[in-house]
Amino acid sequence: IQQVFKQLFYMINAVALNNLLLRKDVCSWSTGMQLRFNISQLEEWLRGKNLQQSGAAQTLEPLIQAAQLLQLKKKTSEDAEAICSLCTSLTTQQIVKILNLYTPVNEFEERVTVAFIRDIQTHLQERNDPPQLLLDSKHMFPVLFPFNPSSITMDSIHLPASLNLEFLNKV
C-alpha cells in the first residue's frame, strides 16, 4: 500500500509541476497559495492513514518548493539567496522557467525582473543539475516485496513422485 501511494503521489507531483512549467496562466502568487494548501491536505491525509513513512510526501517536494517559489518575494539579492537555498529539489532550469512565467494577478504584485533572474542564475551556476525541464510522469519506482522466511525446513518437505523431480537430491 505504501509503495502504491508513493507512486501515486509522484505522479501527482510530476503532472502538477509539468503543468506549472508549461502554463503561464498558473504561475502566480495565488496559485502558489492554493498549491500549498492542497499539498498540506494531502500530507494531512497521509498522516491520518499512517502512511507518512511511505516516502509519498517526499515525492511532493519539488511541487512544494515550486509553490513556495511562487509565494516568495522576488526583488533583492537576499531574496535570490533565499530562493536558491530553499529550492534544492528544483533544477536551475525549472526555477528560471517559473520566474520567467510568473504573472502578477493584481496591481500590488510586480513581474520578475530580468536582473533578478540573472542574479538567480549566477547564484545557481555551481549546481550540476540535469538539463531536463519537465519531470518524467511515466517514471516507475521499483516494487519491493518483503522477504518472509518460512518456518518449514527443507528436510520436512515430501516431494510426490508424480512431480517427476527425481533429479533433486536432499543434501
Automatic annotation (TrEMBL):
The lineage of its organism: Eukaryota, Metazoa, Chordata, Craniata, Vertebrata. Coiled coil: none annotated. Pfam families: DIL. Residues 1-126 form the Dilute domain. It comes from the Eukaryota. GO terms for molecular function: GTPase binding. It comes from Thinocorus orbignyianus. This is MYO5B protein. InterPro entries: Dilute_dom, Vascular_dev_regulator.
